[in-house]
Specification:
90 residues; alpha+beta; two-stranded antiparallel ribbon; 2 strands; rod-shaped
């Protein structure tokens, strides 16, 4: 599993982008596609050519094997009055 962590600032806010996971190996995607295409009981097909129907099937298999999800999380640091307020000199 790979993890990529990036920290960047925009205005006064800090953002952290973290991506982790792994992707399916293309050989495995093509293997599943080949088996599914050639062993379809209603419409077995060869896999040496590509048409729009086969392209759709390959796309569906790819996304079944490579899920992408995301989430957003907001964190607020605790208020520190001493940091923002300077007492007047007496």
């Amino acid at each position: 599993m790979k993890t990529l962590r990036t920290l960047f600032k925009q205005d006064k806010e800090k953002f952290v982008v973290e991506m982790s996971g792994s992707r399916a190996v293309w050989k495995e995607v093509l293997a599943v596609y080949s088996v599914k295409t050639t062993t379809d009981p209603d419409n077995p097909q060869e896999v040496a050519t590509m048409d729009e129907t086969k392209k759709g099937l390959l796309t569906d298999i790819f996304w079944e094997m490579n899920e992408i999800s995301s989430r957003t999380e907001t964190k607020t640091e605790p208020w520190n009055a001493a940091r923002f307020y300077q007492a007047p000199s007496v």
